[in-house]
Amino acid sequence: MTTSQPSGLHILIVGAGFAGLSAAIECTRKGHRVTLFEKVSSIDEITRYGDIISFDPNGSRAFEKWVFPDTSSVAERMEEISRQTEWLDLFHYQGEFLTRQSFAEENRWGRRINGHRGELHRLVYEFVKTRKEEVEVRLGVRVVEYFESDGDEKKGPHAGVVIKGPDGKMEKVMGDAVLAAEGVRSRGRKLVLGLEEEDEQPKSSGYAVYRASMVFTHIDDGNIEESWQFPGKPEEALAYLEGWCSVVRELVKATPPGRLIDYKLVYREPLPTFVSSKGRVALIGDAAHPFLPTSIQGASQSIEDGTVIATCLELACQSNKRWDMSKEQVVPTALKAYEKLRYKRVHKAQAMGPKTRERWHKADWNGPEGVWKVPEKLWLLREEWLLGFDAEGDT
Asked: CB–CB of 347/270 below 8 Å?
């Protein structure tokens, strides 16, 4: 894997989800040193569970560049354990076949990877471990505070976090920039947005999804609590499936105890910014833009985030050397460029989730142009501007 010359930057990343891991990998590709913080004490706590996850070509393109010491790429290893989905069949809930959407034409844009979330997550984490000279991974530590400073006579501009270790001791860690990648409840949002946690609670989408190896969405009658992921009971899911075809009901009945998750689908209003006022802390992944599952883009967009922000940091460092940009301007310039490059694109992609959900859940079945007559109306929106995108090249 090609790696740029050392940039001299030290990047702190909070969260070892796909956004955090991809940012760590891309930062090392661009010559930046990384410290990655994750609250779980073992990566097994993340990777042992999960349903299916999809990476479209705009996301999987990065995996081609991540090469293990044996010269196999992350993309190749993912493909070995993934489902090679060539089409999507859509059915009426009572079992009648409606239409088949082929993905064959998408091959020109790159790989489409569909696999078990935990297995693919572990594979990316294992690749991060091969970069141990450039990435320090600290598990079992909880970030309790973010900060940034313009600096003083003793220390120049910096950003950092306060972490709480397994022993309860607090530690202050400083770097050149902090990337908040720990999801929709990221503490980094407080610093970036200037809001207290109670001021920006997630909003209910009105739906929830029962997740195991199958996905089933339904009208939700619950409220949003501190957590929106709960153990699900098959009998509760079956109550929503009254009148559905027997195949679906039997799948739910066959789900082993403890393997069904009742996952509340929540969203945030588009944020006014992804970057803090001093330009040294940035939100990435779900911390910046949570996606509904019906977008099928949340994971891919998080990979794009990591690619873009690492490349912006590299280019800003080059500008510092070539032109009259001060060292103090490098990180703020890079993070503002990241926001400018990502803001409109990510919100356009984000909007596809509600659009698809509405077409599926509020379908007009019997009208002159209803689904029974034009079932292709239910097809996923698959467009070149989204799937054929090269985040690194564009940056």
From this structure: yes
Q: For residues 59 and 182, what is the distance between their CA atoms, to the nearest angstrom?
A: 19
The helix/strand/coil state of 35 is strand
Rounded alpha-carbon distances, angstroms, from residue 125 to 47, 48, 206, 248, 360: 10, 13, 33, 34, 35
- Domain residue limits, the chain: 10-85+111-199+268-394, 203-267
Q: Would you identify the CATH topology of the domain 10-85+111-199+268-394? A: FAD/NAD(P)-binding domain (3.50.50)
What ranges make up the beta strands (E) of 212-338?
215-219, 229-231, 261-267, 281-283
pLDDT in tens, 348-384: 999 988 888 888 888 999 999 999 999 999 999 899 9
The pLDDT tens digits of the residues spanning 264-298 come to 776 677 889 999 999 999 999 999 998 888 888 99
Strand duo 10-14 + 177-180: pairing: parallel
Contact 335, 280 (CB under 8 A): yes
Chain mean pLDDT for the chain: 89
Calpha distance 49→71 (Å, rounded): 29
Longest alpha-carbon distance in the chain: 73
User: In terms of Cα–Cα distance, which of 217, 185, 189, 190 is closest to 202?
Assistant: 185
Tokens of residue 132, six digits: 């141990």
